[in-house]
Write a sequence for this structure.
């Protein structure tokens, strides 16, 4: 199910929203010059962590990770970035958006249970 093109597109959109959410948090939660730094730095850090650490042979990616990690580590990274996006929206003063995004992340992972099982089997 998780390799279905619709599910891959949904996951990609969740990734984009999560990364953008960190920028929203940086903009809304801080004042002064920090705001301008964090609106760029937080999304870049999230995107770099998402892109670098991967499980070798992951069929939803190119299979050639920059830094190979276990499946459970990758699952923690995914949940941290996606869940962090929901928390960032909440912390930025957008609680309805944060809850809605958290629900979407949970629904995605419930539908993509085969990916979760695959990741947990790669330790």
């Amino acid at each position: 199910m998780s390799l279905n093109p619709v599910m891959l597109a949904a996951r990609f959109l969740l990734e984009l929203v999560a990364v953008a959410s960190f920028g929203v948090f940086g903009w809304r939660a801080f004042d002064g010059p920090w705001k301008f730094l964090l609106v760029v730095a937080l999304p870049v850090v999230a995107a770099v962590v998402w892109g670098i650490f991967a499980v070798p042979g992951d069929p939803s990616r190119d299979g050639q990770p920059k830094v190979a990690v276990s499946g459970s580590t990758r699952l923690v990274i995914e949940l941290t970035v996606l869940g962090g996006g929901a928390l960032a929206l909440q912390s930025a003063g957008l609680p309805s958006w944060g809850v809605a995004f958290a629900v979407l992340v949970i629904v995605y992972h419930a539908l993509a249970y085969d990916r979760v099982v695959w990741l947990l089997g790669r330790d």
Summary: The mean pLDDT is 93. Residues 5-29 form the longest helix (25 residues). The first strand starts at residue 53 and ends at 54. The radius of gyration is 15 Å.
